[in-house]
Amino acid sequence: QVQLQESGPGLVKPSQTRSLTCTVSGDSITTNYYYWTWTRQPPGKGLEWIGYIAYSGMTYYSPSFKSRTSISRDTSKNQFALQLSSVTPEDTAVYYCARGGSLMDCWGKGTQVTVSS
Predict the structure, then answer these.
(1) Which of 82, 84, 93, 80 is nearest to 16 (CA)?
(2) Is the pLDDT of residue 101 over 90?
């Protein structure tokens, strides 16, 4: 059974860089043809797709986030990470990691990130 768990700081100050990590168990992030995705849901809004890292290590980002987003991985720990720079209060959201590129079949429970001074 695949499980994903997000972790990272819950409170970040504006203009800082925020990093989140997703730890995967029950599957390898290098398994062929799987993609590992970050999404978020701001309060009162719908789900926003941020980007993914593929089994090969290739990354792809939503144009809305591309300029200040980086997704990386640590295969030795079976983890992938999201970095979002120059955060503003508009980046306050619940952040989710998931397996899948555009159609996700396994999700983490989500972690709240609040951007506030």
Answers:
(1) 84
(2) no
